[in-house]
Amino acid sequence: MLNKEVLQILKDYNLGGAMRWLLDHSQSQGHPYHSLAHCVDVMHRVCTIWGWSAEGRVTLPKKPPKQLVYAALFHDANHSGGFFTDDAKNVDLASSAFSAYWFSDYCLKVFKRVEHDMLFEYDVSQLIMYTKYPFAELDHIGSMSLQNVEFCIDVLRDADFMNRTEETLLNHLVGIKQELFKYDSWKEYLDKTLAFYKTIKYRTEYGLKYGKPQLQRATDDVTQLYQLLYSSPTKAHE
Hints:
mainly alpha; 11 helices
């Protein structure tokens, strides 16, 4: 989605150069799901979740830190689109893409190099690494310079999974199948999708309030689709 809110985020965080780099260099733009559009949507949701969460919380800044916004924008850059079945390799590709941008000639010219540049790059790369699914334990957060790091990871993870609205669910299902389950039948794929939905756990208050009901609606809709296509879902999903 490209709207006024997204354009304002790109402006507020000086992300024009990052968007240009992704448009010029990202190899995942043609993917049916893990594309630049998906990354922009996650970036937008990160800012939405953070802003909602910051209301009434004096200990939380009004806007998310730059590292988190960058991590959202790059979290699936250069995604293999199903070539790699191990998601660790996909997040490695995304982290490498951010590093390539951050230390590119463009950034060297536009941004003044200061001592914390390496720390900034490390924080963004670590946030990207924590989007790997199944989610890893938070083993390395002590080495990060970022404030509210655990909350940042929760926000990023929730934002990545809050994308199954009634308007986009079918496109989401088709896109994921084309990338990750191209050799499965639709029956096998829908079985795996319903099983996967059961593993999703939201961590932020926003995710619990808005993401959890959204996920339940998606589960109900996929179950009904399964019934229409194959008479009845398997007992595992009844």
